[in-house]
């Protein structure tokens, strides 16, 4: 599996951003039973940067904590099917990996939310990556039952990794 992590800010963390992203992303893919080796791109930007992406791609002119851009279209969440004849749209020609999608994180919101919720920066990064990875796996939270399912899966994954609100 390949995880590209780019930090376009001056933000430094007291943990490995790359390792945290990879650990959480792998756990989500394992939990979801992804049958492919996957490729995920992660960009760490600031509030201004994420606001620009949100405006450009979602026509919402405000900052947010995380944006998810799935490459696959899912009939059902966690169902990793590539339509016959469309392999070139979804698989990296060099590695054969499934190009799952892109995640954009706001370093400013990570810091603010970690403080607001009283947990570590690592916990906030891990939570946002788990949340976004579930979006890349076809989940959404537009309806209350969808939201409850995503929240349950996020907590289950983070707890299994020992990344709880109380952990540092």
Description:
The protein is an alpha/beta fold and 168 residues long. It is 45% helix and 17% strand. The protein is built from six helices and four strands. Strands 1-2-4-3 form a four-stranded mixed beta sheet. Strand 1, helix 1 and strand 2 form a beta-alpha-beta unit. Helix 1 runs parallel beside helix 5, helix 4 crosses helix 5 and helix 5 packs across helix 6. It is globular and about 45 Å long. The two termini are 27 Å apart. The relative contact order is 0.19.
Task: Describe what is shown at a glance.
This protein is α/β, with parallel strands linked by helices and 168 residues long. It is 45% helix and 17% strand.
Q: Topology, please?
A:
Elements: E1 2-7, H1 17-32, E2 38-45, H2 47-58, E3 66-70, H3 87-90, E4 98-106, H4 107-117, H5 121-136, H6 144-160
Parallel strand pairs: 1-2, 2-4
Antiparallel strand pairs: 3-4
